[in-house]
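Annual report, structural modelling task.

Input specification for the EPU complex:
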Amino acid sequence: MDKLRITGGRPLEGEVRISGAKNAALPIMCAALLTARPLSLANVPRLRDVRTMAKLLGQIGVEADERADGSMVLATSAIREPVAPYELVKTMRASVLVLGPLLARCGQARVSLPGGCAIGSRPVDQHLKGLQAMGATIAIEHGYMNARAERLRGARIVMDLVTVTGTENLMLAASLAEGTTVLENAAREPEVVDLARCLAAMGAHIEGAGSSVIRIEGVRSLSGAAHRVIPDRIETGTFLAAAAAAGGRVRLSGAAPDSLDATLGKLREAGATISTQPDAIEIEMAGRANAVSLRTAPYPGFATDMQAQFMALAATARGTAMITETIFDNRFQHALELQRLGADITLRGDTAVVKGVERLQGAKVMATDLRASAGLVIAGLVAQGETLVDRIYHLDRGYEALERKLGALGARIQRVK
Ligand code: EPU
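The model returned the following structure:
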């Protein structure tokens, strides 16, 4: 199993190009299920989750042609098997995003229930509730959701909580439903907006994406389209947090500063100097960061996907940071690993109290999920001596060429077999 060997203590200097957003690319790939015409995507990140989604879609009947330049053409002339098997869903929960489009396109779907997850219990009841309101019948049998619908009908759906993939699944389904669907308490994440833009290019009628009420007028059929995936705001935030922790001066090109207000605000509070251009961000950090407290929240609040990276930053900051996780109920596993590097962290329910220490010391640590791994890499960059991060297959799911990009900024980081 691959590991990352990091020798800490060097500031980061230079420029890195940001990849396309994983969490935008995955639902957008599923939009290809809604049409027989080709969907042509640009800026698709080269990641394991994208390959897993291509494999899943391939089994369903989608031909996916991924090119080295980050473009991908998906074509679904026919649905062969409307099934998402356990073997794929258990490795990537976003697989559940095929449920809505399959029901809309061919009136049936069989999707494995996702089950447990390293960051907390993650039910899909809101996806099901919405699809049922649109006329689907769904039975849970032998670990699978067996769903059927003649033709989905538009409905007014008030979601009990803000769910990103739940909103996306229902938007995908509603695009081909009969009549108008109104999603209330919808997620406002930029990835939801990007999916809406792609669907609109395919001929869907969607209003309000980016606000908490989304209105979708169903159409009979959708066409192909060309769409460019937005830059990955979490990859961007991860490099920014790394630069804030390690110090130095970094420019991130091909980024979307508009989608990062909460992260940029916290980095400024930590003492970083940040300047933005329409598609680039520069950060400069000298000396130790100030401790910044934060509370995760749905967009435009502080992203839960940035929480681990900011805990790593807080670990060597001046002062005490209170980090509260409100989205997932078990997303502090990195805290225990950070303690192995010498961090002073006390967990009190949904809050981590992080007392900054002057120095971390390199050690062997284990990654538990994607963003936790990113937090450990950041800690490794500032720790004295060598840190070995195990189980980095988590990182490969969601960061394109992380060690190459950090290496280009001067970090001493190496993948070992
Ligand atoms: N929830 C329910 N019922 C549902 C759906 C969600 O109770 O039917 C709860 C979840 O258990 C959680 C909260 O609602 O407590 C929010 O979950 P959400 O559904 O928004 O998460 P998700 O759609 O499964 C996406 C991202 C995650 C990111 C979260 C929150 C994708 C593919 N995944 O997950 O990304 O953390 O939104 O922003 O878009 C990552 O990239 O590392 C990652 C985990």
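The mean pLDDT is 97.
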